[in-house]
């Protein structure tokens, strides 16, 4: 038998990287991650549902574009702690405070990108569709929206990554997902808890961004064809120049 007492565990030593923490607090980590994902997903979906009609209003009536974009920008400048404090008397201490705040923050990104995507649709494309008998609704959903998808998804990616990060601030009302663990860990200087929750938050943001990028490539196959065509044209031009 080996003599001597075993050294302190990583939990007792309060190490930054601790496998024992992962084993003993796995359910706590799973619960926090699920809450984080749920708040993020609901906030982004609701933000998109609110931003889309606002972008349509801003495009339809030019006089409304300034107020709509201005209002969403003002909302984005409100500090998150102040936003949650203002919403608490309305919703109480609940997840609705965090979700509502995150929805309001996402609007400036989503409205601007949706509007930019719709405005970038060539006028001749719209005219051709109208000449083929497309009405306003069919023109929007079958012509304009597909062509605006790259800009829309780009905004959705930014909004989603921002929402993943800002969900952590919901810990001030007890609904911050992984932010709750980060706040608790910082309060007690529990290194493993702070680092693990922070790394999981970063991984969630990266995973969400990659998933949305894959969705964009799946929904817009013509952009890859155009990219290959342009690359081929550039190679042909260089070859012709070299031969000449």
TrEMBL record:
Membrane topology type, per the record?
Multi-pass membrane protein
A single Pfam family it belongs to is: BPD_transp_1
Transmembrane residues, as ranges?
37-56, 68-87, 93-118, 164-182, 194-215
Q: Which residues does the UniProt record annotate as the domain ABC transmembrane type-1?
A: 33-212
Q: Keyword annotations for this protein?
A: Membrane, Transmembrane, Transmembrane helix, Transport
Do you know which InterPro entries this protein is assigned to? ABC_transp_perm/SBD, MetI-like, MetI-like_sf
* Compartment annotation: Cell membrane; Membrane
Gene Ontology CC entries for this record: plasma membrane
Coarse class of the primary localization is: membrane
What highest taxon heads this organism's lineage?
Bacteria
Asked if the Swiss-Prot or TrEMBL record annotates the protein with the keyword Cytoplasm, the reply is no
Gene Ontology biological process terms, A to Z: glycine betaine transport; transmembrane transport
Name the family the entry cites. Answer: Belongs to the binding-protein-dependent transport system permease family.
Q: Which PANTHER family match?
A: GLYCINE BETAINE/L-PROLINE TRANSPORT SYSTEM PERMEASE PROTEIN PROW, OSMOPROTECTANT IMPORT PERMEASE PROTEIN OSMW
Descriptive protein name: Putative ABC transporter permease protein
Organism listed in the record: Streptomyces lydicamycinicus
């Amino acid at each position: 038998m080996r003599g001597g007492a075993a050294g302190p565990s990583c939990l007792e030593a309060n190490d930054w990287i601790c496998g024992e923490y992962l084993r003993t607090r796995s359910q706590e980590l799973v619960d926090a991650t699920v809450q984080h994902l749920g708040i993020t997903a609901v906030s982004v979906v609701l933000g998109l549902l609110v931003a889309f009609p606002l972008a349509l209003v801003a495009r339809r009536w030019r006089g409304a574009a300034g107020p709509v974009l201005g209002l969403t920008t003002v909302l984005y400048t409100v500090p998150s702690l102040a936003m949650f404090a203002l919403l608490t008397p309305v919703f109480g201490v609940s997840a609705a405070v965090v979700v509502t705040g995150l929805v309001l923050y996402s609007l400036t990104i989503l409205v601007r990108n949706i509007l930019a995507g719709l405005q970038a649709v060539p006028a001749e494309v719209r005219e051709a569709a109208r000449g083929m008998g497309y009405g306003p609704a069919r023109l929007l959903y079958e012509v304009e929206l597909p062509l605006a998808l790259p800009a829309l998804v780009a905004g959705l990616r930014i909004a989603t990554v921002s929402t993943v990060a800002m969900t952590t601030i919901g810990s001030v009302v007890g609904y911050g997902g992984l932010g709750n663990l980060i706040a608790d860990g910082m309060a007690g200087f529990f290194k493993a808890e702070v680092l693990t929750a922070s790394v999981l938050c970063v991984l969630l943001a990266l995973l969400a961004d990659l998933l949305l990028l894959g969705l964009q490539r799946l929904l817009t196959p013509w952009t890859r064809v155009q990219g290959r065509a342009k690359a081929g044209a550039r190679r042909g031009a260089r070859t012709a120049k070299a031969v000449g």
